Amino acid sequence: KAFSHMLTKRIKKTVRTRTMQGESWSIGERMTAIMAKIPLTTPILFEDIFDDSTDRELLVTTFLALLELVRHQQVAIKQTIEFGAIAITRGPVPFNEIEKEIKDDELATD
After folding, report:
1. Residue 18 CB coordination number (10 Å)
2. Are 90 and 38 spatial neighbours (Cβ–Cβ below 8 Å)?
3. How far is CA 79 from each of CA 39, 45, 50, 89, 96, rounded to the nearest angstrom?
């Protein structure tokens, strides 16, 4: 629900004048970008992990990257009240360990 709300809000906010073809983002790249935004000791809001872009592919790839970080316990997500703000903090697993595991997974699927 939070992702859908954020996506709707961003798309309504900007009038698209043109579309660029050929841009793509990897989940690994977006994971790195997310981790760069999260301070070591304080949480950030869910909305803050998304760039100001209205590109649907970038927003979805960023969301998938967030889910992957949660799965690997790189980030923790907390929501104290229903429909309230979602806070994201760093998790117990160092990111460099996750990067190695992701590269190993990518090599195994090639």
Report:
1. 4
2. yes
3. 18, 10, 18, 12, 27
If one counts every other C-beta atom within 10 angstroms of the C-beta of residue 12, the result is 9
pTM over 0.70: no
Token pair 């100001």: residue: 52
Q: Could you tell me which residues come within 8 angstroms of residue 70 by beta carbon, excluding any fewer than 6 positions away?
A: 76, 77, 91
In whole numbers, what is the pLDDT of the chain averaged over residues? 78
- Three-state SS for 91? coil
pLDDT of amino acid 104: 47
Characterize the bridge pairing of strands 87-90 and 44-45: antiparallel
Q: What is the 3-state secondary structure (H, E, C) of 12-58?
A: HHCCCCCCCCCCCCCHHHHHHHHHHHCCCCCCEEHHHHCCCCCCHHH
Residue in the structure block whose two tokens are 């760093």 = 90
Phi, psi of 44 (to 5 degrees): -120, 165
